[in-house]
Design a protein that fits this description.
With about 160 residues, this protein is mainly α. The chain contains 6 helices and no strands. It is globular, with a radius of gyration of 15 Å.
Length: about 160
Amino acid sequence: MANFITTLRILLGLLACSFILSEHYSLGFLAFVLGAISDWFDGSVARSNKEVSEFGKVYDPFADKVLVLSAIMGLVYKHMLNPYMATLVMLRELTVSFLRSIAKDKDKGAILSGKIKAFFEMLSISIILLGFITIGNMLFGIGLLFAYISLFAYIKRWL
């Protein structure tokens, strides 16, 4: 069940991007928020159903990245999100994924600053989709700050 929810998050991310690109921002907001909410449930469902697996530990962050980065790309394409900040976030996400793959034995899951980063990313994308582009970009900037705080924390943990 947990992996089904995770798969749903990937599909919702792609759907949100599609809605953004076709300028159906309300539907993009709905798909994105449902995807963000699903992120809260899949881990707890996996733990309560004793479905925690090595696959799920890799699949969940992958789905998170598909959800967020798909929306980011759509917003950048529509000139609603600062492309420089978006590029820095994407670079951070690729770096963390790379480091996780080579430091698999040292990976202990998400850290607080990473969760704060995810919160601000998801909040800012939602705010932008509601039409508050300037505020959303400012919140995205806060998320970017936490993205790099968490990157350095991960590097410290893994080294």
